Amino acid sequence: MYSLSQSVDMKGAAGEPLPSPFKGLERLGVEIRRGELSVVVAASGTGKSVVGINLAIQSNVPTLYFSADSTAATQLSRATAIITGHDAKSIKAKLHAGRFEEYGPALAQRWWQRFNYSARPTPAELELYLMAYEAVFGIYPHLVVIDNITNVDTGGSGTAEEFTFGLEGLCDYLSEMARETRAHVMAMHHVIGDYSDGLKPVPQSGIKGKISRVPALILTVHKEIDGMGGRVLHISPVKNREGFEDSSGETYASYEFNTRNIRLTDLEATVDF
Question: Which fold does the domain 10-73+113-266 belong to in CATH?
Answer without folding.
Answer: Rossmann fold (3.40.50)
